[in-house]
Write a structure and sequence with these properties.
Layout: H1 3-11, H2 17-28, E1 50-53, E2 58-59, E3 65-77, E4 83-87, E5 92-94, E6 106-120, H3 122-156, H4 159-171, E7 176-178, H5 182-189, H6 193-205, E8 209-212, E9 215-218, H7 221-228
Antiparallel strand pairs: 1-6, 2-6, 3-4, 3-5, 3-6, 7-9, 8-9
Length: 230
């Protein structure tokens, strides 16, 4: 294959700005999801070694977990070069399969003022597990279940089933979902806003929901549940 053919092949993988926004939203929910303040034995992190980075330096995450101690760390998509998330002090990030943490298709870069991070290798992660096993399970277990559910829905369900499942989950025992826009639903599900609008309009016609300003009322939760399982 010549160089021109290779370039053409790569160009086909460029994302539109809308897809970049959806991808960033999805990645942001998966990276940097643990915070030190959520764990009772936070003093454990004070004993970890630290590294300092000058501004705009790549922080390599091979089999290590980091904790932002000072400054800011930016997460960027490696190939598409768009900002995914900014990690503040107290946030964990890195590649640590033992704790279900991964950077996926992103890289970490120190912010404009640089950054200091604590470093946790596998041995330190095991010690953390011994100290905070229950709390870690409480934090990570639901995320793993949610990831499996999202993967199944994305692979095998249509958009209307996924929207119905989301509304039911957000409503809980109640019958209303407030403060959620069509764009917000789209970002959560990785779908275009227009697709979400079409699905909501169809549900409204079927008297499954009623849509107001920043408010969705669930009129037929049984019907929505049946739709969510299709």
């Amino acid at each position: 294959m010549n160089k021109r053919a290779k370039r053409t092949g790569r160009e086909k993988h460029l994302l539109t700005e809308r897809l970049k926004s959806l991808a960033a939203s999805s990645l942001a929910r998966k990276i940097g999801c643990l915070r030190a303040e959520d764990f009772p034995s936070s003093s454990f992190f004070d004993s970890l070694p630290t590294l300092s980075f000058s501004p705009h330096r790549i922080i390599r995450c091979n089999d290590q977990l980091y904790l932002v101690k000072r400054g800011l760390v930016e997460v960027w998509h490696m190939q598409q070069d768009f900002l995914v998330k900014k990690l503040t002090v107290g946030t964990f990030f890195g590649d640590m399969p033992l704790l279900g943490q991964t950077m996926l298709v992103t890289r970490a870069v120190s912010g404009e003022a640089g950054a200091m991070v604590s470093v946790m290798d596998v041995d330190a992660a095991r010690r953390w597990l011994e100290a905070d096993s229950i709390k870690l399970v409480e934090k990570l277990g639901p995320r793993l279940v949610n990831a499996d559910e999202q993967h199944y829905r994305a692979m095998f369900q249509n958009a209307d089933s996924r929207v119905a499942a989301l509304l039911l989950g957000l409503a809980g025992e109640g019958t209303t979902v407030e403060g959620l826009t069509q764009a917000g639903i789209g970002e959560t599900l990785g779908a275009y806003r227009e697709t979400v609008a079409n699905m909501l309009n169809a549900m409204k016609r079927e008297r499954l929901i009623d849509v107001g300003r920043m408010k969705i009322t669930l009129l037929d939760k049984r019907g929505l549940r049946e739709l969510s399982e299709m």
